[in-house]
Write a structure and sequence with these properties.
Strand content: under 5%
Structural class: mainly alpha
Radius of gyration: 19 Å
Order of helices and strands: HHHHHHHHHHHHHH
CATH class: Mainly Alpha
């Protein structure tokens, strides 16, 4: 419990600081949008690039582990989005895409990596980095393409959509990172330090901007939909991941426990960054991140108790 609290409570502290900066008038209404642009275009691309470039490809290709987590994502999305369409009459592709992100996109960087290192030592970072690469390179890229497709005229060509999507820094940066890892080259130390400094600002800035945007919003608005997100993200996603890892792909204890812990993480703040960027699903995205992070204090503790046994 103390390990979870030591990581989760500072996350809430940064969000609260953002709320208070708006409430006290220290920062104005447009500051959240400006800060979100900093995260989206300046801080986040170096973080995504380095997270891919620093991991050798042969360490990433743990196929049973990748298959377990991917299968958990796919089945969770099928169940979660089918329920959302029926229960909340959601039909807009951009809204459904962001709702789907809130159901399966875990906070692997800012919560997953430190939690697994606390639990398993330095080797615990490897599963978290692998899943970060998987979700950023595949799931985040696909989500960005789907949202970009709703921004274009209906008659736009597929080529136009493709070129537009690959101007998106959330797509370009992890692709370049994987290509750099594959090349076997080494980053020039001052350049790597420069990118690392920029990337370190992404997490705290995203959480702070989310807190600023929450000012004036009610995190309990749309309580039925947020409750659905909580059930799917914190309960169904890890349960399905455990079933695939235990009975289908038969992972050993370390990889099975890592997969379940990563699936049980709360929704990542990057969902809010994307929502704010496209001005779609903003309030629900912020509420999903805040509420799943709050409730995960309990659910993650239960998962760690299971893993400890």
């Amino acid at each position: 419990m103390s390990a979870v609290l030591n990581i989760v409570l500072p996350v809430f502290g940064v969000i609260l600081a953002g709320v208070l900066s708006r409430k006290t008038g220290l920062l104005g209404e447009d500051s959240a949008e400006a800060l979100n642009k900093f995260v989206f275009f300046i801080a986040l691309p170096p973080l995504l690039f380095l997270s891919c470039a620093r991991v050798p490809l042969n360490e990433i290709l743990n196929w049973p582990f990748l298959a377990t987590y991917s299968a958990g994502i796919v089945l969770t999305l099928i169940i979660g989005l089918s329920g959302a369409r029926r229960l909340f009459q959601q039909t807009d592709l951009a809204v459904l895409t962001l709702h789907g992100m809130s159901l399966v996109f875990s906070n692997t960087v800012y919560l997953g990596i430190p939690l697994l290192i606390l639990a398993y030592g330095p080797t615990g970072a490897t599963p978290a980095v692998i899943i970060t690469l998987l979700t950023n390179l595949v799931f985040l890229t696909l989500s960005a393409v789907l949202i970009e497709s709703t921004r274009k005229n209906h008659n736009s060509s597929n080529f136009s959509l493709l070129t537009s999507s690959f101007k998106n820094p959330l797509i370009v940066s992890p692709v370049l990172g994987v290509l750099f890892s594959w090349s076997g080259l080494t980053l020039y130390a001052p350049l790597e330090n420069f990118l690392d400094l920029l990337g370190r600002g992404a997490g705290s800035a995203a959480l702070f901007a989310m807190g600023m945007s929450l000012y004036g919003f009610s995190v309990t608005a749309g309580v039925r939909e947020i409750s659905w997100v909580l059930i799917i993200k914190l309960l169904l996603h890890p349960l399905l991941t455990w079933m695939f890892g235990r009975y289908v792909f038969k992972l050993d204890d370390f990889w099975l426990e890592s997969a379940v812990i990563l699936a049980a993480l709360p929704a990542g703040a990057l969902i809010f960054v994307v929502a704010q960027r496209y001005n779609v699903y903003v309030q629900r995205a912020a509420a999903s991140v805040v509420m799943t992070t709050a409730i995960s204090v309990v659910t993650l503790t239960l998962v760690f108790l299971w893993a400890g046994q």
